[in-house]
Design goal:
mainly alpha, 5 helices, about 55% helix
């Protein structure tokens, strides 16, 4: 049980690194033709080509959960960690930042304001080159004023 929990948490954390690398080098690289739809103003469409990534990324999670329920418990921990990250990503990215689900909540804490700001700055770039901040649940604090020296 403890190993499964550790594997779940490690997978969840590792997914941020995997998402960063995929976003930076694939989505803003050879897969830009799909991701570009996400950097353009929405045309009142519920679906954009970028949403195909969610389906693509769900497939390994589904397969691992299936394997985990058929005799491979460590695969279940990994599959659930990936799924939990996907849920956190959807909640942050699609609901909180892009408001694809209507709500009136506004980020108040420093962490939430920083990652929302980082994501909005990322979207200022309309081409695959020149973007910054490719993480989803972590962003370096690049936009706060520098501390004053005494």
């Amino acid at each position: 049980m403890l190993l499964g929990t550790a594997l779940f948490l490690a997978t969840f954390a590792g997914m941020e690194a995997a998402a960063y690398l995929m976003h930076r080098y694939l989505m803003h690289g050879p897969l830009w033709l799909l991701h570009e739809s996400h950097h353009r103003p929405r045309q009142n469409a519920w679906f954009e080509l970028n949403d195909l990534f969610g389906i693509f990324f769900a497939i390994p999670s589904i397969l691992l959960i299936y394997a985990g329920t058929h005799g491979h418990p460590m695969a279940l921990a990994v599959g659930l960690g990936m799924t939990a990250y996907g849920l956190a990503y959807f909640t942050f990215h699609d609901v909180i930042v892009h408001r694809r689900v209507r709500h009136s909540w506004a980020p108040r804490g420093a962490y939430m304001r920083r990652i929302v700001r980082a994501h909005l700055v990322h979207h200022k770039t309309l081409t695959k080159e020149g973007a910054v901040s490719f993480g989803f649940l972590y962003a370096p604090d690049l936009w706060s004023p520098a501390p004053r020296s005494a």
